[in-house]
Description:
Chain A is of the alpha/beta class.
Amino acid sequence: MIEVRNIFKFYGSTKAVNDISFSIGKGELFGLLGPNGSGKTTMIRMLTGQIKPTSGSVRVHGVDVLEDPIRVRELAGIVPEQETPPSFLTAEEYLYFVAKIRKMESYEKTCEKWFEFLDFGDQKNSLCKDLSRGTRQKLMFAQAFLHEPELAIIDEPLINLDPVIQRKVKDFLAGYVKNGGTVFISTHILEIAKQICTSIGIIYKGKLVYTGRLDDPTLQRRNFEDFFLDLVSRPGNSGTGLSIPAQYA
Amino acid sequence: MFDIFKSMLKEEWRMHSNLFGNNGFSLFPVFIFLFTFFVSLVLPIFREIFTYAQIALGMHYFFLLLGSMVGAFGLMGREFMNRRFGQASMIAYSSRTLPVSERLIFANFLVKDVVYYFALYVLPFVAGFALAAALIPAGNFHFPFTLLFLLLTLSLSFMIGLSLVFFLSTIYAHSGKLLTLGLLAGCVFLLSISGNLDSGIFYSLPSLSFFLLSSKSQFLLSSGLIIIPSALSLFFLKVDFPQAKKSFPNSFSRLCGKFGSYRYAAFVAKDFLDLKRSEGGFGKLIFSFLLPAALIWMLLSALGKVLPALNILILISLVLGVLSSSMYNWLTEYDIFTSYAFFPLKVSDMIRNKLNSYLFLNLVPFILLILLTLKKDPAFLLPTLLLFLSISLYMVSILIYLTGLSPSINLYNGRTFAVYTLSVMPLLLVNVILSMFGPYYVLVNLLLVPLALYLLGQSFRKWDRIESPRF
Ligand SMILES: Nc1ncnc2c1ncn2[C@@H]1O[C@H](COP(=O)(O)OP(=O)(O)OP(=O)(O)O)[C@@H](O)[C@H]1O
Ligand SMILES: [Mg+2]
């Protein structure tokens, strides 16, 4: 479903993504893990053709993203890192607007279903700018699945959601994958990855330092958090903040 | 107190210079200086046509308008600032988190606007004019005394505009409807009396008459016009604009339905709702379009009496064409491309969407122009409308080519602004001259239509190439 070959992205001298390759099959729920600033969002933006890689190739659903970014964004449902729906539409109007952008014919029922499922029907007549962050995130989540895509790409899916909704979203994603959908998420919350992903990649300073299935025996033998912290705090790698500043210690 | 002021100035500077790099931004006043200088060099020619007082009048009203536009942007444009820089980043709106009163912060905000834009517009303008006046026979504009005096009175004009807008926005914060109705009534009144006005009335702008007569009472009057509305506004300040309605039934589907299978229906409907529901509502249309248009129409009517050679219907079509292109700025202020980057849309698609909304908005000046022409001289209907349409299309395509989806940000780049002005000013000048020979000569402007279409095609290509414009 997703094929990434030797991809690089430089911003001036910053190597946001530095020679990464991986592939994700249909029906997988892939989690890209990594600390802040490690290149997760940059990766997602390249997968969806929002930015061009400095070099390397990306194929999604058989489509070369560099050649036809629009097609990829037609096929996939995408939840971006920052929830920025237009301020002056109401939540409901926004979903209708997205449906129009995606050239859907009938969508009212689907939208209604999402309001019910994520439990924010009482907000559907509020302007997007007045919604709480969590509600905006729900809206962006609903937006991505409106056209029933086979592939969903989600930057930090659960970050602003309360535990009840988190649970619903996790269950939804699990069911979605079971029914043949493919999901790519990025997150730095290890617990989430552990609960829902079928395979993971760990990115650190633009490099992919680990990829594998979550049921891989090496992973099973170890505490997942320790494993992650080991990878992203090797000698010479500073800045993971593992030592507590003296005044608080 | 002074710290807040300093940080606000810094914030404003950083906001602009971050956007285009220091160079681009500091070029802005330099450009204004050079532009005024070169335009002023032809002053002797102007002196053949206009009197000293008329030139002074033009300048003072120009700065009055400038002041009110800066004010309108500062206060009404908050929505847009919030979206781009986040609620907390603008000091003016962070009174909730800083241990100082809203009043103090807004007083600072006002003073900051004066100082900042004084340095950006007023000073380079007068400096350019002064340099030219020193080199050429400038009549009554004596160097340096009269010019220093001009610096003072133009600043007064600028501040009167700013302070009046501040006052209006405070009224608006208390009752939006009242202000909107009041302004609308004002516009209609101005337009209807415009034909039978004694042009002397324009000289009663205190800053102008202070310049011409330098009497103490006019100075006091000017200062009063600045201080009293500002003080009243600060006294009755209300930071939260009324947002009576928090809940809206779905109007989007209904609007889309009206357009049938029109390709851009969803986007035009969305832009319409943005305009309607954002601060000021359709009041913005009156405030930033009808009111200036009415003022200019009055000035032109008065000018037409003094200089019968000028065809004021042709002139107002030109002015409306130029003014309408500012509507493209409003339309782009509610969106950032980031909100669309994850949909199957290109930057050029968004530009096309905005362009369609722009065409709809142009109905307002179009109808206004029809009404004015019918009132004044129906025989000119065809040339005025065609002129207006071609100028408006040309202006917006230049704007799009140069600034893409963010005109109000990118135009502050000195270089961009220079190119923009140079592709517009000569054209306007040529048209003013053409109009004196007869109304049909301006139909030459129809040649701008293919040029505009070509430019638009180039713009689509240009802005699609640029990777993920951040705004
Ligand atoms: N447009 C840009 N211009 C310059 N540098 C950028 C740009 N976008 C990202 N970067 C840099 O690239 C690196 C990776 O950023 P990215 O946003 O991909 O990280 P992330 O893993 O998503 O972090 P987070 O967990 O905080 O969301 C960072 O060092 C960031 O500063
Ligand atoms: Mg990120």
